[in-house]
Specification:
One of its GO terms (molecular function) is phosphate transmembrane transporter activity. This protein is mainly α and about 750 residues long. It contains 25 helices and no strands.
Length: about 750
């Protein structure tokens, strides 16, 4: 029996390493968002600063994993074998849940997930015990720390609202003081702002960072709490003087200092406090095993009363955990995806929105605009004008297209870090349970709203994104509870076999999501479009148009061939997948059309006429994709409705057209990939031949109808396929003709 529990411990520690990776990937948004979004320093420097904070916080963490041992349930009410069931269910659920959110690029709370998983698994095992004995559900309160669970839920709701409102108010007044042209005002206002900000971050490190360190004595913590007013006053004076020296004598941008120190502080606190979320359960399981192994009592008879004590974690484990966390920061693509979500929702500039609008976001934005207009009407016109001047954004300086501008400036980045630090410090002082993820994210959303980053062009999408993220937080709690409860019941009755099956399923989904994320990241990188801030020349228009044409042609070519093949085999699953892939092509062209404003605005004076060319080019690409969509959708619906297969002769004719189209598309792709535009005349010369072939197929079908065709559904599908193929060919050749004319004209002007 002892060997069985050693195997379970081994599995738990493997899951702990995985949980460290997925947990850090999720919580990276807490301390990386502001620095990365503002580009205060290089990405390498940001990661170094964050890594130092994470390493120090993890290595010197107290390791008192009380949440896992007694924070949610009462261990003295459970036997050793039941405790191990709870811990295994929690770890499997946590890894699956956090990896799912990471793959979606959505931030969630590792604190909330671990607490609700512990609650769900403990409730499940407690109910099994009750049904096996008294059958009185009212005894459930004897197993669960109801007061702690209630505090968590209340703290989450309060923290979300307070963080958003506080972030918005502080950012609004900060912008009134600094405006977007803050450089000249830093010499005076920056001294006070720097003093307050650095003092707040310093106090945050004392309260939330150092308090979790193993080498910090209880006496020191008591001294800090008793003298907090004096600490705040002296740190304000000291850091204000330091800010004055740095600004006046060393010409230092104090905002960059605030962002770097704030990033370190949040990383330090994250590692020191949230490490319990990742390794607390396996450590508690290990400590449980040690208690049981020396007790001499069977696993089903030993109540875990001793688990309620405080036992420090060995330093070697903390060092190892810190190393894993640092490596994850540097190499996790999912961490970048989660951070990217927060940055996109709070960015000042326009661009592709990661979330679509919904009814609730439209309603909120509509009434917010009405409320804002009513408030604006109350203010005197002179006051409105002065406020608007403070929020007027400067023009973006020209820069290389490969370098994207900062998502927001250093003023907002500083406010994000300072407000989050103050709120988390206050929550710690008042012993309120809160999630650092929720606080930092909602502060960032509040500051972006106050900074007018959510204008009428983007507000409906940004609000929808925030609602999606918040909705995901509540889903986290619900899924964590139910998932852990279900897994605990399965493990309780299934034993080691159930554990093996569940761990195998977990490994499968981790690998699957990792490969899927890597594939998606690669596709996004390949298709990424930058909003142009530099001047576009004729040669660049030609080069960029060539890339767009080649990619869309390549996608259409694949979808057309697969539709013909899958229609011949009557393969519903592949037709459905193919139809979905065309939606990605539509999104790609929509993104290009969405950037027309920036394209035209960036044209140099000698290439204004190129805007007409680019607009018509995108229109032809849209027509080509629409024809392909019609073909794939109708083919899928035909098979999905269980209509008769197309006849052999019909499929054979479609394959003939497909072969000719593949030759055409292949030649076009080669032409634009290699920029061998002299071949365009040869491509256009084949125009009539291909159109005549399709017309011939139409005539043959008319003959079939009059002689042997007996299926009106087949006829509808076949004629639709041929006519849309004809439109596809015409749009393609019209696009080639348009590009040829533009190329010849552009060449003559060079």
């Amino acid at each position: 029996m002892q060997d069985v529990y050693l195997i379970i411990l081994g599995i738990l520690f493997i899951l702990a390493i995985t949980d460290l990776v997925v947990g850090v990937s999720n919580d990276a948004i807490n301390f990386l968002n502001s620095a990365i979004g503002s580009k205060a320093v290089s990405l390498r420097s940001i990661l170094i600063i964050a890594s130092l904070g994470v390493a120090v916080g993890a290595i010197f963490s107290s390791g008192l994993m009380e949440v896992a041992r007694k924070g949610i349930f009462l261990p003295q009410e459970f036997y050793f074998e039941e405790i191990m069931v709870i811990f295994m269910a929690v770890m499997i659920t946590d890894v699956l849940l956090l990896d799912f959110f990471n793959s979606m690029g959505l931030p969630t709370s590792t604190t909330v997930s671990i607490m609700f998983e512990l609650l769900g698994a403990a409730v499940s095992v407690a109910l099994i015990k009750i049904f096996n004995t008294t059958n009185d559900i009212s005894h459930l309160v004897n197993f669960i720390n109801v007061e702690k669970a209630s505090e968590v839920i209340f703290g989450i709701l309060i923290a979300i609202v307070i963080a958003f409102i506080t972030g918005a108010v502080v950012q609004y007044f900060s912008r009134l003081v600094f405006s977007f042209k803050y450089e000249k005002r830093l010499r005076f206002a920056g001294v006070i702002f720097g003093g307050v900000s650095l003092a707040a971050i310093f106090y945050f490190i004392l309260i939330k960072g150092l308090n979790s360190m193993a080498f910090v004595s209880d006496h020191f913590v008591d001294d800090v709490n008793e003298n907090r007013i004096q600490i705040i006053i002296f740190s304000l004076l000291g850091f204000t003087m330091l800010s004055k020296i740095l600004i006046s004598f060393f010409r230092v941008n104090i905002l960059k200092i605030i962002v770097m120190v704030g990033t370190f502080a949040l990383a330090l606190a994250f590692a020191g406090n949230d490490l319990v979320n990742f390794i607390g359960v396996p450590i508690a399981a290990w400590q449980s095993y040690e208690i049981w192994s020396v007790s001499g009592v069977s696993a089903s008879q030993l109540l875990m009363s001793d688990l309620a004590g405080s036992v420090p974690t060995p330093e070697i484990i903390l060092i190892f955990a810190g190393g894993v966390m640092v490596l994850t920061l540097w190499f996790s693509g999912k961490a970048r995806a989660v951070v990217d979500t927060g940055v996109k929702l709070s960015r000042q500039n326009e661009g592709a929105e990661p979330f679509g609008a919904n009814y609730l976001s439209r309603t909120i934005v509509r009434y917010s605009i009405m409320f804002g207009a009513a408030v604006s009407d109350v203010l005197p016109q002179k006051v409105r004008k002065q406020i608007n001047n403070q929020f007027e954004t400067p023009k973006t300086k020209n820069q290389p297209r490969e370098i994207a501008p900062p998502a927001f400036d250093l003023v907002r980045a500083s406010v994000n870090l300072v407000v989050a630090s103050i709120l988390i410090s206050m929550g710690t002082n008042w012993q309120l349970p809160l999630s650092t993820t929720y606080v930092t994210f909602m502060v960032a959303m509040g500051t972006s709203l106050a900074d007018r980053a959510w204008n009428q062009e983007s507000a409906v999408y940004r609000v929808a994104g925030v609602l999606n993220v918040i909705g995901g937080w509540f889903v986290t709690a619900l899924v964590a509870f139910l998932g852990a409860a279900i897994f605990a019941a399965i493990i309780y009755y299934g034993g080691l076999i159930a554990i093996a099956v569940l761990v195998s399923i977990t490994a499968f989904f981790i690998v699957k999501n990792t490969l899927s994320h890597a594939k998606k990241a690669k596709a996004d990188k390949r298709q990424k479009r930058y909003k142009r801030t530099d001047i576009i020349t004729i040669n660049e228009i030609t080069a960029e148009s060539s890339v767009n044409i080649s990619q869309v042609i390549s996608g259409i070519s694949k979808r057309y061939t697969k539709t013909v093949d899958n229609l011949g085999y009557h393969d519903l699953g592949k037709l459905k997948k193919n139809n979905k892939k065309v939606g990605e092509l539509e999104s790609e062209v929509d993104d290009l059309k969405g950037n027309i404003y920036y394209f035209i605005k960036s044209l140099d004076e000698d290439s204004i006429e190129a805007s007409r060319f680019y607009i018509h080019l995108l229109d032809y690409l849209q027509e080509m994709v629409n024809s392909t969509r019609y073909i794939t959708r109708n083919s899928f619906e035909h098979v999905n409705n269980n209509h008769k297969n197309l006849k052999f002769n019909q499929i054979r004719d479609l394959k003939k057209i497909d072969r000719k189209l593949q030759e055409l598309f292949g030649e076009i792709k080669y032409t634009f990939d290699e920029h061998d535009f002299e071949r365009l005349d040869n491509i256009l010369a084949e125009k009539q031949q291909l159109l005549d072939m399709v017309s011939e197929m139409i005539e043959k079908q008319i003959t079939r109808i009059r002689t042997s065709e007996s299926s009106p559904k087949n006829t509808k599908l076949y004629f639709g396929f041929l006519l849309e193929s004809k439109d596809l060919i015409s749009s393609t050749l019209n696009l080639i003709q348009l590009f040829r004319e533009f190329y010849v004209e552009a060449k003559s002007t060079l």
